Structure formats: structure tokens, C-alpha cells
Amino acid sequence: MRVLVIGSGGREHALVWKLSQSPLVTEIFVAPGNGGMNMDKVSCVPVQADDIIGLVKLAREKKVDLVVPGPEAALTLGIADALETAGIACFGPDRYCAQLEGSKAFAKEVMNKSGVPTAACAVFDNADEAKNFIRKHKGGLVVKADGLAAGKGVIVCHTPEEAIDAIDVIMTQKTFGNSGSTVVVEELLQGEEVSLLCLCDGEHAVPLPSAQDHKAAYDNDEGPNTGGMGAYSPAPILPDEELEKMTDLVIRPVLKHLAAKGHPFVGVLYAGLMMTADGPRVLEYNVRFGDPECQPLLSRLDSDLLSIMLAAVKGELSPELVRFTPKSAVGVVITAEGYPGSYEKGMPIDGIEDAEKLPEVVVFHSGTKIADGRLVASGGRILCVTALGDDLASARDKTYEGVSRINLPGSRFRKDIGMKGIVRLEQLKTGK
After folding, report:
1. What superfamily in CATH does domain 126-181 come from?
2. Which of 67, 218, 317, 366 could hold 201 in an S-S bridge, CB 3.0 to 4.6 Å?
3. Phi, psi of 10 (to 5 degrees)
4. What is the DSSP string of 365-394?
5. Which CATH code of 3.30.420.40, 3.40.350.10, 3.90.660.20, 3.30.470.20 fits the domain covering 192-426?
6. Whole-angstrom Cα distance, residue 178 to residue 147?
7. Model pTM?
8. Which positions ≥6 away from 292 have C-beta within 8 Å?
9. pLDDT in tens, 123-159
10. Which of 45, 75, 16, 20 lies closest to 295, judged by CA?
């Protein structure tokens, strides 16, 4: 079978890596791909992820059997709808369902109608009205750009003054462009975050093992939000035995609601959860694999990814198709110095082969390209070094050993990825 993967980041590299292992796959096209996707069966094609017309044309020309969109932009622009019109299967939701990620206000409305627990909020398209609302509020708030902002459009504010400044950043200064024309202001929840990703076929949802992302730029969750600095799976805050219960609470009611609207959700539905003292609350939904959660999750997947995706598209998904190793996985993202702000590109990259000589270590490329015959950095997030281990601590050790073997001037990484999980496991062990 021929598969087209849309995107150019670490998530897409992981998808291509896993799909290429399927005996059912004869050829994989990636649009546009990156400098690390020089694998057997794989060809990169210079079509951008937001070029809907170009992507459909490519799928037709290459006689593709299945399209797998990686990034949210293609989905919110309606790639699944366009492919359906062309008679080409797509592992991803239609444009209506993609609003769960494309509009935070829409997502809140769906959550409220579906009975999904979430933070109380208010929605504004006028900066002065938003500020007046904030002035009446005591304590912390979270201000979110309504639209897509590459994972950076969320500002956590501990005081009303900070929240008013956030309104200026998003609505007045237009830091996130038109994504900030509308804002969602919601209560600041306290607790630990965890990611729950579910495979969906329109009716059924099969949860994947939990994962925990690290969004803040610096150690100890300090600094601005990023697209993700690393992730690990499983996350002890959401153990395997609680996955079905959590899916019943935050995923299946949404699937039922969307199906009743005539838009059955096919693909990956991702709930970002805050585990509060009062129970779980949904912070946001994504309508695709998370990046970097995808890298450790697919490293743990023991079954054929293409078979899973085809079953989902056909409405025949079952838990028996989805098997994971009991091992843990950790992924650490290496970024350009300055990310998520301004940063340099073009730095040479060495040591990847040396890192991958370590057992069960894979280096996924997030922002790389080949220039003048050598591999160089071409994005803010450059690499995601991922490793399996018998437990979280050993996976973490192997990952950082892999990171240490890579030579990338002008780069940095967080040094605490996975530590929350290790501390929690120790607490569970000692009963403290």
C-alpha cells in the first residue's frame, strides 16, 4: 500500500518510521518531510502541509491508499474533507471536528454540551471587555488565543495585572496574528498535567498509554510555553488501569456529540488534562498526535500502525489491534538557543549515528534539512532523542546518554524530562 504522511516535524518522522516497519507498506511519500527521512520506502515531496489543493493532487498522482496528516493546520483547513471528495482515505477528522483544536471557544462549547469537566471560562473578541472581566477577578487566570498558535498561544497569569498584559500581547500586539482576535479567559487550575491520546473510528475510542509533555522552555517548568521540550510514557499520574475510566469521562462523550452532529471523529483525539484535587479537568483538545508525545508512544507500539489506521478509517477499530510494550520511553527535544523566541538556523549537526548505536535509541528529526551535502538545523525544535528502557529511570538515562553524543552548536535542552514521573513512582513505592 502507498501512504502519504503530511508534515515535516518530529511527530511526522516518528509516523514515517513506524509506518515503514509495516509489511503492508510499499511506499511512503512525505510532504514536505525533513532531513532525517532518508529511509527505505520513503520519498520526500516539496508540497507544503497547508497546500490542500497540492496535497490532494499529490495523493492522486501517486495513487495513495491512505493519507496521514501530522500537523493540525492541514486538518483545520479541511484536508480530510477534500480527500473524501476525491475518494481517498484519510486518518484524520473533518474540518468541523478539527475545530476542537482550531477554536478553543468551540472546544469549550462541545465540552460543556458533552458534560466533560473543564475550567470555567469566558470568551471575548473585544480587548476592553476582556480587561474589565479580568479586573473583577481575584487570583490566577489563563489567557488563550482562540485559534492555532503552534502550542504557544497560552499565557499563564498569576495575577490580574499579568492577565491584562496578556490581553495586550494577544489581542492588541497580535503576537499570534489572527489567532488572537478572540481570546478565552479561564480559571487557573492547580495540579499536574498529563496527555491522554485515543485512536478513534467515529464511534469507538481506544486509549493509548498515558504520556506527559513538558511545555515550558526551561527546567522546573519555567519560562515561556513552547511546542514541547520532551515527553515520556507511561505517566504514573495516569496509570494504565485508569485509562478506560478516563476515556469514558473525557473522550467518548465528545465522540457521541460529534457523531450526533453528523461528523463522526476519525483519527487521534488528544485530551490535555490537569489532574486537580477535585478530579481531572480538560485543558484543551488536539485532533492529532502530540509532538513530542508521539515519539515515545510510537517507540512503545508493538503492533502494525498501518493496520490500526486502516481499521479506524473503516470504522472497525478494536482494542485487540493496539498493543504496547510494558517498557517505558523518554524523548528529549534539542532546540536552537533562543527558542521559542528568535533563533539561528543552519548549524551543522553531528553525532546522530553515534547516539543511535546505543540500544533502543532513535533520534527523530524535528527541524533539519540537507544543505550542501550535510545535515543542518532548520527549525526551533531540531531533534528529539528517544529511548526505551525497562523502567522510566533507565529509559531516561539512555535518552540523555544519546543526547550527550550529539554535537549541535547553538543548541540547548531541558535536563529534567521524566523526573516528575520518577519522583511520583518513588512516592508510590514509599507511601509518602
Report:
1. ATP-grasp fold, A domain (3.30.1490.20)
2. 317
3. -65, -35
4. ESSEEEETTEEEE-SSEEEEEEEEESSHHH
5. 3.30.470.20
6. 8
7. 0.94
8. 10, 11, 213, 228, 229, 230, 231, 331, 333, 384
9. 999 999 999 999 988 889 999 998 887 767 888 899 9
10. 16
